[in-house]
Amino acid sequence: MNTTYSRIRDLRLKNKKTQKEIGEILGTSANMYQKYEYGQVELPVRHAKKLGKYFKFNWWELYED
Question: What integer pLDDT is reported at residue 12 of this predicted model?
């Protein structure tokens, strides 16, 4: 599994959020967010930035190896 996808899943679970809640934070559907989490669709940078702002971390960490 790509580290970006495992990181967003871990971030969601650590913060006790549902896929639907994260989708709402990103302005997308739970179904679309699920595709990011499962690695079916690449997480757009704009969404990584929103996650970073919401959870107060450097969004770039999602893309580091």
Answer: 95
The answer to whether 15 and 8 are in contact (CB under 8 A) is no
pLDDT-derived band of residue 52, with 50, 70 and 90 as boundaries?
Answer: very high
Cα-Cα end-to-end distance for the chain: 12
56 and 25 in contact (C-beta within 8 Å)?
no
The mean pLDDT of 1-8, rounded to a whole number, is 78
Other C-beta atoms closer than 10 Å to the C-beta of 4 total 19
Task: Collect all residues with Cβ–Cβ distance below 8 Å to 55 and sequence separation of at least 6.
Answer: 11, 15
Residue 50, φ and ψ in degrees, nearest 5: -65, -40
Q: What is the mean pLDDT of the chain?
A: 92
